[in-house]
Amino acid sequence: MAVRHYAAASAVSSSFRARAHSLHPSCLPAAAPALPMARPCGGAWTRASYRRAAVRAMGASSSSLSSPSPQGQAQGKPVYTSLSDEEWKKRLTKDQYYITRQKGTERAFTGEYWNTKTPGIYHCVCCDTPLFESSTKFGSGTGWPSYYQPIGDNVKSKLDMSIIFMPRTEVLCAVCDAHLGHVFDDGPPPTGKRYCINSASLKLKKTQ
Ligand SMILES: [Zn+2]
Q1: Which parts of this chain are annotated as the region Disordered (predicted)?
Q2: Residue 91 within any structural domain of the chain
Q3: Centre of ligand 1 from the C-alpha of residue 88, in Å
Q4: 150 inside domain
Q5: Residue 27 placed within a domain
Q6: 196 part of the active site
């Protein structure tokens, strides 16, 4: 819908089916010992923040031209991609804001969900879109919650060159553009993907 069209137009692959294009996530293998300095999910955010500002500007004009609500947004809900930094600060905790809106990374083994095995659905902490099912979560040994598959097209991807010589694929909420983490090619079957996600970008809703 509106958001997905916008994503595609921004030269970013919104579908992992198209992920093969030239991306080479030279990432840390899931089985590698997690070093304190290792940041398989993270990266410098200053350049990314700058880019976000530009993207937000484009998103605001784009969304104003589109009438349908994106998936996961009910009628009357705000268009999340047009919310200002100040509005996000009011809605989120300091950590949630830093990670989701400024592309930060929480320290390994410190997040709320890195070792959680509770059945349920992990939603976007910013807009409540369901992103990952607990059944696709696996122990990656990295210290970040890891999944081998997102829910539908609710997660989109984007090339991240914030670390020189280390191209990575950033993953974002498809509805509100929240930074979630990165996806790597060393995950388990059936997808072979490892979605390395910050706990602070998620909200687990337990299965009743
Ligand atoms: Zn979201």
Answers
A1: 61-82
A2: yes
A3: 12
A4: yes
A5: no
A6: yes
